[in-house]
């Protein structure tokens, strides 16, 4: 597993950035894409998603952001891509999520969200 990366932003795409780490380019899905600039030296924590049909990295600008992500992916129905989409909807914490989904919606079960909220009330 890749825990973090330090390098220069080589490219910025619609949903991802490419970080040059010693002449190897790592593509990372990131939130707040507008905070990255080509040529900037950055440090990001990562989460490696490996599934049967896909393999990708998600980048986090802080340890806290990664910790919240790690706790939220334990909620039934919330996976890495869903959480990235929620950030694009300006949902940054559990309260925002509960307000956005006041009833059962798609595969998200509010009881699980409430459990996560009771365990950890931090900002995404």
Could you name the key traits of this structure?
globular; 4 helices; single chain; 124 residues; alpha+beta
Short characterization:
By secondary structure, the protein is α+β, with helices and mostly antiparallel strands. It is 29% helix and 30% strand.
The CA-CA distance between the termini, in Å, is: 22 Å
By helix and strand content, what is the structural category? Answer: alpha+beta
Rg, Å, rounded: 15 Å
Runs with pLDDT <50, length 5+?
103-110
Report strand order across the widest sheet.
1-2-3-5-4
**Helix count, DSSP H or I runs of 4 or more residues:** 4
Please outline the major beta sheet.
5 strands, mixed, barrel
**Helix-strand string:** EEEEEHHHH
Quote the beta fraction.
25-35%
Beta-strand segment tally = 5
Give the overall shape, derived from the CA principal axes.
globular
What value does the average pLDDT take? 77
Helix content: 25-40%
Describe the 3D structure.
This protein has helices spanning 63-72, 80-88, 94-100, 110-119, and strands spanning 4-12, 16-21, 24-29, 41-50, 55-60. It is α+β, with helices and mostly antiparallel strands and 124 residues long. Strands 1-2-3-5-4 form a five-stranded mixed β-barrel. The model is unreliable at 103-110 (pLDDT under 50).
């Amino acid at each position: 597993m890749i825990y973090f990366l330090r390098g220069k932003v080589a490219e910025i795409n619609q949903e991802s950035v490419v970080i040059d780490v010693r002449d190897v380019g790592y593509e990372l899905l990131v939130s707040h894409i507008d905070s990255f600039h080509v040529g900037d030296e950055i440090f990001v924590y990562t989460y490696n998603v490996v599934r049967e049909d896909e393999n990708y990295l998600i980048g986090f600008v802080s340890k806290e952001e990664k910790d919240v992500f790690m706790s939220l992916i334990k909620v039934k129905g919330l996976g890495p891509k869903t959480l990235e989409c929620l950030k694009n909807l300006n949902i940054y914490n559990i309260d925002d999520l509960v307000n956005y989904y006041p009833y059962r919606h798609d595969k998200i079960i509010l009881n699980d969200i409430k459990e996560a909220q009771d365990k950890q009330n931090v900002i995404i």
